[in-house]
Design a protein that fits this description.
The protein has helices spanning about 5-35, 55-65, 65-95, 105-115, 120-130, 140, 150-160, 165-170, 175-190, 190-205, 210-215, 225-235, 240-270. With about 270 residues, the protein is mostly helical.
């Protein structure tokens, strides 16, 4: 082995060790979710369940309306993602390629608004939606997605790297702004769209505080709140059903990341070189 390869080998071994440390609790949670003995006690760590059973999942589905919570969360998450990513792309395109007065001022003003913590705006927003009669509906969870500030910032940074010559040649062929946006900008922004989409999906899938405040009916609630309520109602020794609910809530995000990881890495690499 060459001396130059030793540092690389050490780095690989260190990363592999860190990966194992991270995955062991995840693997243990999956094992507990299929272990029938985990409903009355915490079994010793093992690579396989001591008594394989689907009892924990059956108990979880019979205790809370998991199917309904999943459907609610999927609908709200997909709706928010489509709205927020679309408007982030259009606003980012305007700030990157558009020409209008005070463009830099409005961009900085927008970033300044992003720095205000949500917790400081939560009470005024709650009062606003209460006065509008929109509490206990999905509107408070969706209307805020029309302004995705970080997505606008990220889209602007990526679209700045698209050559202006492409837009100019499209103008000469008689294309308008919307045609240029959908025919040129969108196809060149697939890694950007994938990154913004997964960030929004993760955010809305795990969103807890705002749904807890605005949604009161259990059949309209989100999965994150339902999981928290389920854990608060169960005894601390009932690890199996808890792990079953946790595994079910995490599966969609894991699958999504595995599908879009190529685009995410590509987008990070491209944005890092600008």
């Amino acid at each position: 082995m060459k001396r130059k390869q030793i540092p690389r080998l050490i780095t690989i071994l260190m990363l592999l060790g860190i990966l194992i440390i991270i995955l062991i609790p995840v693997y243990w949670a999956v094992i507990l979710s299929f272990d029938a003995g985990a409903t009355v006690r915490l079994p010793e760590f093992s690579l396989l369940p001591s008594e394989f059973s689907m009892r924990n999942y059956e108990f979880a589905f019979s205790t809370i309306p998991l199917t309904r919570l999943f459907l609610n969360t999927i609908f709200v998450t997909l709706t928010n993602t489509v709205i927020s990513v679309f408007f982030a792309l259009t606003a980012g395109y305007a700030f990157a390629k558009g020409k209008f007065k005070f463009k830099n001022f409005w961009f900085v003003f927008m970033l300044a608004v992003m720095m205000i913590p949500f917790e400081s705006r939560m009470i005024p927003l709650f009062v606003l939606y209460r006065d509008l009669g929109l509490l206990d509906t999905w509107f408070p969870l969706i209307l805020g997605s029309f302004a995705y500030v970080f997505g606008t910032f990220f889209a602007r940074q990526n679209m700045n790297g698209i050559p202006d010559e492409l837009r100019e040649s499209a103008y000469l062929d008689g294309a308008g702004e919307w045609k240029i946006f959908f025919r040129i900008i969108i196809p060149l922004s697939k890694p950007l769209i994938a990154t913004l989409s997964i960030l929004q999906i993760i955010h809305h899938w795990n969103n807890y505080l705002w749904p807890l405040v605005t949604i009161r009916t259990q059949t309209r609630q989100m999965l994150s709140v339902g999981v928290a309520m389920f854990n608060s109602q169960q005894d601390a020794i009932i690890f199996g059903p808890r792990m079953a609910v946790a595994v079910l809530s995490a599966i969609p995000l894991v699958v999504l990341f595995l599908i879009l990881q190529k685009h995410i890495v590509q987008s990070i690499a491209l944005s890092g070189t600008k």
